[in-house]
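Feature request, filed as a ticket because there's no other form

It would be nice if the structure record came with a short human-readable summary line next to the C-alpha cells. Right now we just get the raw output. Example of a typical job, pasted below so the devs can see what we mean:
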Amino acid sequence: VTVRVLNGHGLVALPGLIDGHVHPVAGSMSVVPASSDWTHCYLNAGVTACVSAGELTVPGFRAQGATPDAVTRLATTSAWCFGNIAAPPRVFAGTLLAVPGLEERHIAEVADAGGRCLKYIYYPFGRDGWREEVERYRHWARAHGLVTKLHAGGTSFQETASPPRGRS
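Raw output as currently delivered:
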C-alpha cells in the first residue's frame, strides 16, 4: 500500500456530503428546489453526491398517468443523462417509480441504464394483491442491484385537474 501525504498548510479536509433525496429535472435545472445551477450550489456547500428520490418533477409528469412504460422511460433517460455528466457533484439519477403492472423487464432496463433505486411514492397500497406485487418488485429490484426506497409521509406535490393559470 502506498501512502501519499499532502500538506494542507493548516486547512481541514472533510469528505464530501451526500444528499440522499433530490428531484433532478435536467442538467442543472430543478423544480425542487426551484432553481437553476443547483448542482453548483450543492457543490459549493460541500455536497459531492446526490441520490435521486425520483425524477417526478419533470414538466408534464402526472402521477395518475404513470404507466410502467412511462416511469421506465423517465428513469432510464434520467440515468443516462446524469450518468454522462462528469463534473461534480455526481447525481445518481434514474429512480424507478413503483406503479402497478411493472414487470421484471422494466426493472432490468432501469438497472442496465444505470438506475439505482426503486421507489414507492404513488403506489396504491391496500388494493387486492398488492402485497404479492410489492414482494415481486422487491425481489426483482434486489436481483438487479436496485435499492428499494419507501416514501414516508405525504408528497409535497399536489396534482390539479389543470395547471394554475395565475393569480386573479
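Something like this underneath would help us a lot:
The helical segments are 38-44, 68-83, 104-113, 130-143.
Confidence is low (pLDDT under 50) at residues 157-168.
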